[in-house]
Amino acid sequence: MSQPTPLHSPQVPVLALGDVLLVSLQGELHDGMAEQLQHEITSRIATSRVTGVVLDISGVDIVDSFLGRVLAEIASTARLLAARTVLAGMRPAVAITLVELGLALPGLVTALDVDRAMELLSQGRS
């Protein structure tokens, strides 16, 4: 396809489920792709009726400091645009790595899986 679509990254699917964006990260997310994803999510929130974002990282083996920062920035930006963010599907090894790196993810509520993340968003403000 010769014409790029600014609101869709072929690398990272961003699905609209009603007023929630479901972002499913798989494998490694390179720096450029992470930044593109951040801009895409921000644009989608700003131009639609999105009230929640679920970041599904169940397919991610490693979260480094850059990706951790990008996830926190997505949550902060979403919050400024009146949308809540839930991080779903974190593997135990990823959680341990984040703690070992001393990375806090401010503004991110966590859930064990996407179903629980959707439940949290449907319960109203936390």
TrEMBL record:
PROSITE patterns registered for this protein in UniProt: STAS (PS50801)
Domain STAS: 10-121
CDD domains reported in the protein's UniProt record: STAS_RsbR_RsbS_like
Domain of life: Bacteria
Pfam family name, one: STAS
InterPro entries: Bact_StressResp_Reg, STAS_dom, STAS_dom_sf
Transmembrane segments: none
SUPFAM superfamilies: SpoIIaa-like (SSF52091)
Family matches, as PANTHER family: RSBT ANTAGONIST PROTEIN RSBS (PTHR33745:SF1), RSBT ANTAGONIST PROTEIN RSBS-RELATED (PTHR33745)
Record-given protein name: STAS domain-containing protein
